[in-house]
Description:
The protein is about 70% helix and about 0% strand. The protein is an all-alpha fold. The chain is elongated and about 115 Å long. The model has no long low-confidence stretch (mean pLDDT about 85).
Amino acid sequence: xxxxxxxxxxxxxxxxxxxxxxxxxxxxxxxxxxxxxxxxxxxxxxxxxxxxxxxxxxxxxxxxxxxxxxxxxxxxxxxxxxxxxxxxxxxxxxxxxxxxxxxxxxxxxxxxxxxxxxxxxxxxxxxxxxxxxxxxxxxxxxxxxxxxxxxxxxxxx
Length: 157
């Protein structure tokens, strides 16, 4: 596709290659981790400021109680950011696994087709050798022994 095409999307090319997808997601993850560092610093500074903000008549824990919803909201943002960066890693892995699955599926189908062909047209089996001739060649192959309990004689004891 040429870049003058109005339907052309640069991410289309990225999406078609697992390596390009992994590189792009790693870049996004790097940016998000940098933002995460800034948000962690902001959360710490906000916590310190809000817990030091006392109003006349407060008990020692009132400032802490007022700060908790803000701290929780920033904590949730950081947790979501960590989940997002983990999801980016997982997405890159799943994208690569998808391509491997596609390749293996094609191979598996070829193997199944060959197996089906073998089942439809089994190779011709050679006739088994005559057991009497085989018995004469090998003295005791396990099949040429007595055929009845009366033929055992003293061999069983």
